[in-house]
Design brief:
Layout (H helix, E strand, L loop, with lengths): L12 H13 L14 E3 L2 E3 L5 E4 L2 H4 L8 H11 L13 H13 L6 E6 L2 H16 L3 E5 L8 H6 L17 E4 L19 H13 L6 E6 L15 H11 L3 E5 L23 E4 L10 E6 L18 H39 L3 E7 L2 E9 L4 E2 L1 H13 L2 E2 L1 E3 L3 E4 L7 H19 L1
Helix pairs in contact: 3-9, 4-9, 7-8, 9-11
Length: 441
């Protein structure tokens, strides 16, 4: 069983020199949690400049769907780069963009025709959905959820309610956005428990919000992550999204599914909404769509995408090289990787539940496919959050060569490439068990 190999103190001398240069020239607003300098990636393995190798359970924040530098994705990039680097799909036509638009439109849930707007990131996909909802409905108000992360541009940031540091000193943001509780079976805002959970969060929107302060006929869209990402990898109860779909349909409100982190096969299905049998009006897609190349897409039902020429555009959106990478990515997802995500996700969940039995600090294990959250608590009875313990686990795992990231206040996210093998899952679980044992004695 291959394990990470740490040859130097971390960071090693070469990595440390690069980090020193980074501090001199790169914005301090980035959130680096440990001193990893990635020099080469292959599959789930990262090598730094000092020859240390790491097992990566982050996939570049759920981006490298097919692993680092998958040969078929690299070949697609090389071929397209030799044909056409850029022509701007805003003003011209080219094959790669048209092919990918058709592929994404056909992959979107539901039988209705769909159309695609291309950008460069998840935030741009959300911004496009924000603007389309206003354009089509001529309504000014929107609803999003506490814990949501939709991006850092001003419209997407206005919808975000994840961490206050993301919003501090940026007010005034876009007005007319109301945030409501997202259903968490582990920490229910309505005092329910998992086996009794109904649709209280949705009912509250209609019975309280729409009756007191938000006229439903003025709401353009409800933005929701089918599984919350930065908010803590929170999976809603089974009936939530269907109830939300029914409510938005009742009042002519767009349902926008932000699948930036949960989409493109990560949960074992192409899009997370498919687990819940829901067809949204709009999908926001990015991160894993192009295996590391910058690409975002807003996919909407064709009859809703009625805005006029010039009302929204992007110079670089739908870049031909990124589109070629995305087409190769989708092929790989459909051939084997979605199925592997489901199988390896089950393996991870089984192993993590076993760890939970012997480690009191693991309060909850949740997820679908390879989108898994481990919530760290100080006390299982009170569910007191333990962000310091979570951070210590992440750092200790890094020291052993296992790359993890946090999400929410006190959750560890498991979001590896969908190419992960059974052996790599076992290695990850073994290292995590070693870390927990070393911390608890």
């Amino acid at each position: 069983m291959r394990r990470p190999e740490i040859r130097t103190p971390l960071p090693g001398p070469k990595a440390a020199a690069l980090i020193e240069q980074d501090a001199q020239y790169v914005s301090p607003s980035y959130t680096r949690v440990y001193p990893l300098v990635a020099e080469k990636g292959e599959g789930l393995w990262i090598r730094d400049p000092d020859g240390n190798t790491f097992l990566d359970l982050t996939a570049g924040i759920a981006v490298c769907t097919t692993g680092h530098c998958h040969p078929r994705v690299v070949e697609a990039i090389k071929h397209q780069a030799g044909q056409l680097l850029h022509m701007s799909g805003t003003d011209f036509y080219y094959t790669a963009q048209i092919r990918l638009a058709r592929r994404l439109a056909e992959l979107a849930p539901g039988a209705e025709p769909h159309k695609v707007f291309f950008g460069n990131s998840g935030a741009e996909a959300v911004e496009a959905a924000f603007k389309l909802a206003r354009w089509h409905t001529r309504r000014d108000l929107n609803i999003a959820f506490f814990g949501a992360f939709h991006g850092r541009t001003m419209g997407a940031l206005s919808l975000t309610a994840s961490k206050v540091v993301q919003k501090r000193h940026y007010s005034p943001l876009i007005s007319g956005i109301t945030h409501v509780p997202f259903p968490s079976c582990y920490r229910c805002a309505h005092g329910m428990c998992a086996d009794r959970c109904g649709t209280e969060c949705v009912q509250w929107i209609e019975d309280v919000l729409f009756r007191t302060c938000v006229p439903p006929e003025e709401v353009a869209a409800v933005f929701v992550e089918p599984i919350q990402g930065e908010g803590g990898y929170i999976v809603p109860p089974p009936r939530f999204l269907a109830a939300l779909r029914a409510l938005t349909a009742k009042y002519g409100i767009f349902l926008v599914a932000d699948e930036v982190q949960s989409g493109m096969g990560r949960t074992g299905k192409m899009f997370a909404v498919e687990h819940f049998g829901v067809v949204p009006d709009v999908l926001a897609i990015a991160k894993g769509v192009a295996s590391g190349m910058p690409l975002g897409a807003m996919v909407a039902k064709a009859d809703l995408m009625d805005w006029e020429a010039g009302s929204h555009a992007s110079t670089f959106g739908g870049n031909p090289v990124s589109c070629a990478a995305a087409l190769a990515t989708i092929d790989l997802l459909e051939e084997t990787l979605m199925a592997n995500a489901a199988a390896r996700g089950e393996q991870f969940m089984e192993g993590l539940h076993a760890l939970q039995q012997s480690n009191e600090c693991i309060g909850d294990v949740r997820g679908k496919g390879l989108m898994i959250g481990i919530e760290i608590v100080k006390n299982r009875e009170t569910k007191e959050r333990a962000p310091d313990w979570r951070n210590a686990i992440v750092q200790a795992a890094f020291a052993k060569g296992l790359l993890l990231l946090g999400c929410g206040e006190n959750t560890i996210r498991i979001s590896p490439a969908l190419t992960i093998s059974a052996e790599e899952v076992d290695t990850s679980l073994t290292i995590l068990e070693e870390v927990l044992r070393s911390m608890t004695g």
